[in-house]
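Show me a record, fold above all:
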Amino acid sequence: MITVKNLRKKYGSKVVLKGINLNVEKGECVVIIGPSGCGKSTLLRCINGIEKVTSGKVIFEDKDINNPKVDINKIREKMGMVFQQFNLFPHLTVKENIVLAPIKLKLMSKEDANKKALELLELIDLKDKVDMYPSQLSGGQKQRIAIARSLIMNPDVMLFDEPTSALDPEMVDEVSNLMKDLAKQGMTMIVVTHEMSFVKECATRVIFMENGNIIEEGTVKEIFENPKSDRLKEFLSKVK
C-alpha cells in the first residue's frame, strides 16, 4: 500500500531524514517510536505530502505522490491524518466540522454527509455533542472529533502524529481506545506515539528511529523483549 524508498529530507543544511526505506501493507498497524527530534513526525508529513521530500520516493497505491502529475489532494482524500493539535474550526459545530470536507469536495451530498457524521459520532460515543462547538469540548473529545473528521472521508490509511501528546493524562485512554478499535477493525495505520501500552496492544510492527534513521524494526515481542541495538535498549529503559 505504501512504499518509502531512500527518503531524505533536509531543512537547509540540517538533514532530518537520512535515507528511510519502509513498506506498509494493507491492514497493518505500524507504530513508530523514538526520542523527540528523531524525524518521526517529519516522516509522516512526507508520506502525506505536507512536506516535500528532498530526494527519494513515497509510493501510495502505485502512485508516486511527489510526481507533479499526481493530484496530491486526491491522494489525501484516501490518506487521513490526525495531528497533535486538533485543528478544529472554532466557529463550526461538531457536525459542521465533520461534514465540511466531503461536502465541499462534492464527495457526498449534504444529506448523506450529515447521516454519516451522526453514525461516526455514535461510534465514538459523542452523538450528544453534535451541535456543540469545540470550545465546549474536552481535549479528548476534540481529538475524537478530529479522528471522525478523517474517517468520514473513508480513507484507505490513517496517519496519527502523537495524537495523545497534547492531552491531559486522564483523557489519553479515550483516544487510545478509539484507535485500538480502528486497529482491531483492520484499518491500515501508521502511528507516531510515546504511548507504549498502545504500541504493545495494537502494533503489527514497531519501528525505532534515531537521528533520522530507522535503527531497528520488528514485532512487539522482538522490539520489547529482544532489542538488538544498545540505543533501543537505552530508550526502552527510560520509557518503561
